[in-house]
Amino acid sequence: MVCWWQRLGRHRRILDVLVFSPPLISTLSSPSPDTINPDTAPAKIYGYTVLMGVGAGTYLASSFAVVQALVPVDDLSNAVGFMSVAQDLGIVFFLAVAGTIYQNTAIKNIMSSVPGTSRGEVFEIIAGTSSPAFMSLSPSVQTEVVAQIIKSMSGVWALLIAGMALSFVLSLFLGVSYFFSFEL
Q1: Is the pTM of this model over 0.90?
Q2: d(CA 99, CA 105)
Q3: Residue 139 to residues 36, 120, 122, 145, Cα–Cα distance (Å)
Q4: Is the dihedral of CA 55, 157, 36, 120 positive or negative?
Q5: Sequence ranges of the domains in the chain
Q6: Per-residue pLDDT tens for 109-132?
Q7: What single string gives the DSSP state of each residue in 95-149?
């Protein structure tokens, strides 16, 4: 049985866009948050968040259409189920690794810039700028802590950039193996 995407013929270029656009959008937008510093305007931060959200949203939505184009109709339910589980596990794995990178580097950076603080106090400081531990710091130390927290987030962005670039490169091979495997 032939999948409905395979029946599109010359209009199948829609699938090209679904395969290549999400990794490209995400790869181009993922370095943006790495430019954040303590003086960055909130509007820029919101803009970066929107760009990354568009990239992630296109990934989540388009992957189901792409997998439907790659498998026979009899296996569609299995393929979509596998995609759902794979996406959920990928999200959980990325959050666990990103959280670990952020937590460990933030603790190290803050303990070195605010000597004499206990590990528990550093956890409270990392909790946010409205935490009592952060508010008890002097303004100059608060500025230094914010800079260290932003520096710690750079490791998370590096992980994101690497993942997006890898997915873009792999999507190019998907196009070679699938799109050129049968005639128009």
Answers
A1: no
A2: 10
A3: 20, 21, 16, 10
A4: positive
A5: 11-179
A6: 999 888 888 888 888 888 877 888
A7: HHHHHHHHHHHHHHHHHHHSTT--HHHHHHHHT-TTSHHHHTS-HHHHHHHHHHH
